[in-house]
């Protein structure tokens, strides 16, 4: 999702989270995004619901973060890449399209608000996985029918596991230049 369908502005998100919570940006990273029990664990499924995620995030930051505030800040940090959405739409005309993401449960639950450009194409169901889990990616993408897929994405090293299992790879279009 991030860096593929959407340009993702991490700096904007951290500044907005700092303003929302009163926690300085370096401290946000230390307490959650770079903490052993933080975002990486959320991506791995440690917090199975959005409420669990928010409780852990709020505890780590020492202040309550609501789902609505989280979504508002997250969405404001995402810009749909104009060339990608039509490409995904075209792909959906010839096959099934889904989003593979390593984002946690809250993003799952609020996917329609965070990725409204994708909802008409893929619906609200998408597949969570750890990018580095090649065995799971094989099961998810190929399924019982031996489906083959083209994985648009980030720079090639992030998808070496996909390439090793025989999935195609296509680099995502470069981010749009800022005006």
UniProtKB/TrEMBL annotation:
<protein>
    <recommendedName>
        <fullName>Hydrolase of the HAD superfamily</fullName>
    </recommendedName>
</protein>
<dbReference type="InterPro" id="IPR036412">
    <property type="entry name" value="HAD-like_sf"/>
</dbReference>
<dbReference type="InterPro" id="IPR023198">
    <property type="entry name" value="PGP-like_dom2"/>
</dbReference>
<dbReference type="InterPro" id="IPR023214">
    <property type="entry name" value="HAD_sf"/>
</dbReference>
